[in-house]
Amino acid sequence: MRSDHVLGLSSRGFHHMRYYEWGDPANPRLVVCVHGLTRTGRDFDVLAEALSPSFRVVCPDIVGRGQSDWLDAKQDYNYAQYMADLTVLLAKVNGNSQNKSDWVGTSMGGLLGIIVASTKNNPIRKLVVNDAGMLVPKAALARLALYVGKDPRFPTVDALADHVRRISAPFGPLTDAQWRHLTIHSARQHADGTWGFCYDPAIANALAGEISDIDLTAFWDAVKCPTLLLRGSESDILSADTAHAMTQRGPRAILREFAGIGHAPMLMSDDQVASVKDFLLDR
User: Fold this and answer.
1) Correct CATH for 2-136+214-280 of 3.40.50.1820, 3.40.1190.10, 1.10.10.60, 3.40.1280.10
2) Residues 6+ apart with CB under 8 A from 162
3) What's the pLDDT tens digit per position in 21-39?
4) What is the reported pTM?
5) What strand order describes the sheet that includes 101-106?
């Protein structure tokens, strides 16, 4: 794994967006993996390693998360800013404007993928949307608002790990090593020695005030590329009805569901990794 950054521009100046890269840097077959609201690019380590023999894989920390800068203007934590930063990233890592890239997005990363893939002359060859849909119900967003951005502090990293297991139980039956991985790469130690999450609490501003459904139906209907839709069978972010509807309109996605998992499948288990890998390799 290698690491580098790109420069993004927000309303208060430039910022760094960190990304992690796997595979041959000269490989023209590129996969960009974009994480969820409070997560980081390191969530994709298992998937990226599995894809790296066939693809160059790039996994950014969206600004305000992980090793990327926090923004001075908190109102800039929005999809327009994220799209602008990801456009800079694509321009750097793709190199040739004629090349197409594959996109794997979990939750927020999936919604961003839908938006990108819906635009004119977009660079997306294949799209994988992991537990996100054309309609995100406000009840699920209200659940996220209960804990996102609260900035809890813990005396030890082990105490933080226990908290991660509790609030992220819908991720499914992960191993101890996988839970540790997800904790370490989403953790930040504060000056007083306590541990918390490595995201700016202000990213939760989008969930403040009156919450309403997120409706991306028009964007979904404009997507033309082959699309794989992944869903945890217990997910409240992507309902079974919405998932089914997404197989009948727009790109008419292939749907894969994983039993006993909520929001969201973490793409760490063999069956989840194989679903993505087989789709991208046209198996």
Assistant:
1) 3.40.50.1820
2) none
3) 999 999 999 999 999 999 9
4) 0.96
5) 2-10, 13-22, 56-60, 30-34, 101-106, 124-130, 227-232, 254-258
